[in-house]
Amino acid sequence: MDVKPVTHVLFDMDGLLLNTEDLYTKLFQKIVSKYGKEYTFDVKLKIMGTQAIESATMVIRELDLPMTPEEFLQECKKGENIFADCQLLPGARRLVEHLHQHKIPIALATSSGEESYHCKVDKHHTEFFSLFPYKTFGSSDPSVKNGKPHPDIFLVTAMKFPDKPVPEKCLVFEDAVNGVKAAVAAGMQVVMVPDPRIDKSLTTEATLVLSSLEEFKPELFGLPPFKD
Ligand SMILES: O=c1[nH]cc([C@@H]2O[C@H](COP(=O)(O)O)[C@@H](O)[C@H]2O)c(=O)[nH]1
Fold it and tell me: For this protein, what is any one GO molecular function term (predicted)?
């Protein structure tokens, strides 16, 4: 594990900061059940981290659904209140507040669109996400030409920092294989906190693999250590 010091930190959102992946599974299963299909983890694995229209296109193709991506996204929109009471994942608050207190530049880089972000954040997490001065919403940001696993979203987000860090100085936190691939393609180091169902062989591109953000030691990447 070849670890280099970093100065800027970029966070994925779904499945990394927020426990929305189980909710996505419930939402997608509800939609595909109408066609007698099962939203398996194998299918989910391919879709996690991709942008809305790509997610819809892939699930339709994988499960052979008789609908257009637009129709699928309309169905998702009808069920989006499922995200309203989502929770922060263990370790997320402590890590983000710690970096904020130590004035480490941080940003949010989620493939979700801005509208989807608000469904997840507005009820309980506005104050927490106000700690991120820079945010990129892949599904609704035209400057993100290609979604994860392409590097665009992380390169676009890094350019939002006034001091324009080089990719090597950026550390990405991700849960999805597509997100890790995007970070590596962007030339950034990446800490992966994968769903336990993800096969170990799919985590080898990450700089470091943790089972929870609670395990993270900032000093490993030259960041200020936790006091406690
Ligand atoms: O079961 C699913 N998980 C995740 C996604 C997609 O993964 C992205 C999660 O964004 P991120 O991990 O970059 O925060 C969202 O765009 C969402 O559409 C999905 O479609 N289905």
Answer: pseudouridine 5'-phosphatase activity
pLDDT digits (tens, 9 = 90+) for 115-126: 999 999 999 999
Taking residues 17-43, what's their average pLDDT?
A: 98
**Residue 81: per-residue pLDDT:** 98
pLDDT of residue 228: 76
Residue 111 Cα: closest atom of ligand 1: 13
Beta strands in the chain (DSSP E): 8-11, 106-110, 134-137, 170-174, 189-192, 208-209
Phi first, then psi: give them for residue 194, nearest 5 degrees. -80, 150
Task: Tell which atom from ligand 1 comes closest to the C-alpha of 15.
Answer: 12
Whether residues 60 and 78 share a domain: the answer is yes
Cβ distance 49 to 111 under 8 Å? yes
How far is the centre of ligand 1, averaged over its atoms, from the C-alpha of 226 (Å)?
A: 30
Which atom of ligand 1 approaches the CA of 174 most closely? 12
Q: 112 lies in which domain range?
A: 8-19+85-221
ipTM > 0.95 (yes/no) = yes
Q: Provide the pLDDT for residue 34.
A: 98
Which of 17, 46, 48 maximizes ligand 1 atoms within 8 Å of its Cβ, making it the mutation to test the pocket?
Answer: 48
Last residue of a domain, one of 49, 83, 117: 83
Residues 184 and 95 in one domain: yes
Active centre residues (catalytic)? 12, 14
Domain total of the chain:
2
